[in-house]
Amino acid sequence: MDTWGPDPDDDASGPADASAVRPFLSRPSGAVPDPGRGAPLAPVPSAPGARSPQVGSGVQATQAGSGVQATQAGPAGGVRPYFLTRGRVASADGRVRVETVVVARRNATFHVAGPAFEHRRLLGLAARPTSVVELAVAMAVPVGVVLVLVGDLAGDGLLDISVPAVAPSDDVDLIRRLIDRVGAL
Amino acid sequence: VSARSETTDARPARTAAGVLPIPVKIVIAGGFGVGKTTLVGTVSEIPPVTTEAAMTSVGQGFDDPGGLAAKATTTVAMDFGRITVDESLVLYLFGTPGQDRFGFMWDDLALGALGAVALVDLRRVEDVFPALDYFEKHALPFVVAVNVFDGTGTYTADDIREALAVDPDVPVVLTDARSLDAVKTVLLALLEVVLARATARARGGTQ
């Protein structure tokens, strides 16, 4: 049923391979599979009976969207990939989400200014309609990087994005089609 | 299948509602090792792909007071699967960790989601509490799916509902993440909730 989009395995090299290709990118080793059943990584701090957020875990995360990078990302890195986005953490196009399907316009790669290797690569991968998350896998970069790049390229008129006219959660016919499809699995 | 791909390649890309499929998504949340990846893989037409979550979860950095770095980098991974409905509609499933400190990552995933599945391991029910809080706070339709491991089959759905303190109208489904039929039941229970809400809104809008 893989009728569109790149095969996720096509170019989804692991972190080690990626660093070999682009050693200037210090990538977090995030591409680790879920450990699966029965393999908890560590005990989780719990507050029995109190479904309280902000359970103290000793790990602090700054507010999302603050745009302030940590001064030290630790050995896992995680900052330098955003060189590709010139430090931006939000897409220029607020409609772009992780599942958004994009497609490059014809000959779009010829119109990219400068040595924007990742932009060209993205456009090449998006020659067929492909989702943001699948582009991220194919490019071996965090999804957030693709969100920003796609926003830029859409703004430059080099690719199109799929924006439903009606919110899917309000589209009764769409939901019925999903029910029929899942029921037929 | 290949014919369709060729058609896609040959035609000019353009902005038109008919060209690009509409993507919709369902979020699968739960603690470590609860079976999210297994569940996604059971119904996905592609093997579950693990990738890194949105930039906000990676670029903010984490302090590392007690050797937690490895855990943190593992945790920002998410995985996804895909179910193609037809050439105009594609359903994505996103599995995401349920720990509270990664709540900001959910905003990227949950925005625009049709709904969510809170996957529970009864040996560690507290792992799913942050997810339940998040879904309730954001009025995201959700179902509770209990991944039944050995020794947890003696509880009823009502017992579990009470233990989790979820509303009576939230479906609680006993499932097995490895079973296609069982996972289908979970997704259909969620989609029925989504449909009921959409139908109610449509009625409200026409009055």
Q: Quick recap of the structure?
A:
Chain A is mainly α. Chain A has helices at about 15-20, 115-125, 130-140, 145-155, 170-185, and strands at about 100-105, 130, 160.
How would you portray this structure in words?
The complex is a heterodimer of chains A (185) and B (207). Chain A is mainly alpha-helical and 185 residues long. Chain A has helices at residues 15-21, 117-125, 132-139, 143-155, 172-183, and strands at 101-104, 130-131, 159-161. Chain A has a three-stranded antiparallel sheet with strand order 2-1-3. The longest helix of chain A has 13 residues, at 143-155. Chain A is elongated. Chain A starts with 14 loop residues before the first helix and ends with a helix. Mean pLDDT of chain A is 66; it is low at 5-50 and 52-79. Chain B is of the alpha/beta class and 207 residues long. Chain B has helices at residues 2-10, 36-43, 55-59, 69-75, 103-110, 129-137, 157-164, 180-206; strands spanning 22-30, 49-52, 77-86, 89-97, 115-120, 142-147, 172-175. The longest helix of chain B is centred in the last third of the chain and has 27 residues, at 180-206. Residues 1-18 and 54-75 of chain B have low confidence and may be disordered. Chain B starts with a helix and ends with a helix. A seven-stranded mixed sheet of chain B has the order 2-3-4-1-5-6-7, with helices on both faces. Chains A and B meet through strand 1, helix 3, helix 4, strand 3 and helix 5 of A and helix 1, strand 1, helix 2, strand 2 and helix 3 of B.
